[in-house]
Amino acid sequence: MNKPALVFGGKSPEHEVSLSSASNALKHIQKAEDSEVLLILIRKDGQFVLTDRIAEDGPSVPLCAVPGQGLAFRDTGIIIGISIAYLFAHGTNCEDGTLQSVFQSCGIPYTGCGVLSSALCMSKTAASELASSIAPSVPRLCTAAMPSKASLAGIGLPIIAKPECSGSSVGISIIETASEAEIVRSFTLARQFSPLVLFEKLVKPCREFECGILEHQGQIIALRVCELVRSRDFLSYDDKYRSGSDYILCPAPIDDSLQHHIQQTSIRIFQKLSCRGFARIDYLMDSITGTLYFNEANTIPGFTATSHYPRMLEASGIGKEEFIKDLRKAAFDLHSEQNQL
């Protein structure tokens, strides 16, 4: 009998975050599926293993992908019966279409966005280009080579430098003067996490909003908007995952008009980027002009005890088990569509 699988970990800077997301999701998947859930860990070296706990050091059996058939025990080649893969692995090599392509090639239904949509959303530049007809983005430069001071002049100071294809605020720094030393430092840091580096105009002062999107009971809905209150120019990895969740205001203290605008804009971007299942759309709003800038789309939002998406579900009156059932339906719908191609 096929069983559902929870996939977590990953060869990614967000490996530990994924373990926390999986720990928080497991009990809700067990209730929604009313079944034993297989635990598949992707180790930091990228190896898939079947394990009995959400941890890095538990007993494990190596697995391998068999295109057209499924996942198998590496030593024996015996196929494991997997009914659906719940993907709770974040960041590079997990959220960028890489992991999705493994399960799609194996013929296993999986939660979240498809291969192309995942890849597009992971690229901040590609996502911004596609969403530009719906919401503007801040002035930016995307480069694989060390930029010159002259090439950054058109953006305007201060500048925020970040990995083009990464998340969870890793590799981010601020450029205040555009000195050669600042540029080298920022480029080198961001380059550790992505082959491309993004230099963007730092919107200051600004407010930061996020809106969760969910395929709920067959319809695409927007969750209540949340606001991230920060005392610095950006929220760091530690702010998000090691300092609690006091910085999250959910629902955001905004009027109904702005709430509706962000929600409807988020639904349109979700559709434009061909997202499926669920996603989180992030924005920056210039506190002086009121301009709302599209920042990025996250196709497997964090699901830890302090993550933003669960807070938005709660504020919108949607239980975790109901959310898992929504993910399950969307996954099978996507799988059916893929099989018709």
Protein architecture, described:
The two termini are 27 Å apart. The relative contact order is 0.15. The chain has helices at residues 15-33, 98-106, 115-122, 124-131, 149-152, 180-191, 237-241, 256-272, 308-315, 320-339; strands at residues 3-9, 38-42, 48-51, 60-66, 70-73, 82-87, 140-143, 159-163, 173-175, 197-201, 206-216, 219-222, 226-228, 248-249, 278-286, 292-298. The protein has three domains: 3-110, 3-Layer(aba) Sandwich (Rossmann fold), CATH 3.40.50.20; 120-136 and 204-339, 2-Layer Sandwich (D-amino Acid Aminotransferase, Chain A, domain 1), CATH 3.30.470.20; 140-201, ATP-grasp fold, A domain (Dna Ligase, domain 1, 2-Layer Sandwich). The protein has ten helices and 16 strands. The strands form three sheets. Strands 5-4-3-2-1-6 form a six-stranded mixed beta sheet. Strands 11, 12, 13, 14, 15 and 16 form a six-stranded antiparallel beta sheet that branches. A four-stranded antiparallel beta sheet has the order 7-10-8-9, with helices on one face. It is of the alpha+beta class. The protein is globular and about 60 Å long. The longest helix has 20 residues, at 320-339. α1 (15-33) crosses α10. The model has no long low-confidence stretch (mean pLDDT 93).
